[in-house]
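Hey, can you fold this one?
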Amino acid sequence: MITAGCDIGSLTGKVVIMEDEELISKIIIPATPKATQTATHAMDLALKEAKLDLDKIDYILGTGYGREKIPFANSSVTEISCHAMGAHWALPTLRTVIDIGGQDNKVISVDDRGKVKDFVMNDKCAAGAGRFLEVMAAALGLKLEELGPIGLESKEPAIITSQCTVFAETEVVSLIADDIKLADIVSGINKSVAERIISQVKKIRWEKDIAVTGGVGKNTGVVSFLEAALEMIKRVPVDPQLVGAIGAAVIAKDLLTDGVQN
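Sure. Predicted structure:
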């Protein structure tokens, strides 16, 4: 049985193809302004990597910000359900998932089957999400992937007080003008993101064995602050950015097993 998950977010498009829940192809590309274009290009690359034609996939499930714009998907499911299932597939002991995406973040309580028990979501502002970090990296003249390792070099994180991306960027510019060490500024940015997530975690009944998924799960600085505060953080044994797409592919298999027709 071959299934695929197509996760179209605000910043990236992800596709995984699985055969009986074994990963045979995985692709991450930058998102374009049109979700349909992003999905099509990502799927083409995934099919090429798997050496398959589209008609050989038994079921394709869409998820993410652009899930309703995927022309070849058989159906779609929210990214909340997909991140829960994908994290469960990667680490079955997980009971809490922190998904930090490009524009929003969610804290999800998961049962022993990978189903969502409860969740809280912050989608009012990009602060605390990937877009916030992207803007901060640009203000510092850094690549997004540099924020994690550079921040870990700091012993005294700078204080970033603003909850707004625009005002926080102004703070960062002022810190640069005051000759604050780059590592301290970066660490302060990572810490501010982690603190927003921690306050969100406290709004839900969370349990030990927590994983961070989504693109920000790659930021070792943010994850380190979360580890220090929550203590039970575990690293998923796959790219955290692919967890939603993996969950979609696993759910697609379950739908086929339950007799859902294309």
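Residues 152 and 221 are 6 Å apart (CA to CA). Let me know if you want another pass with a different chain boundary.
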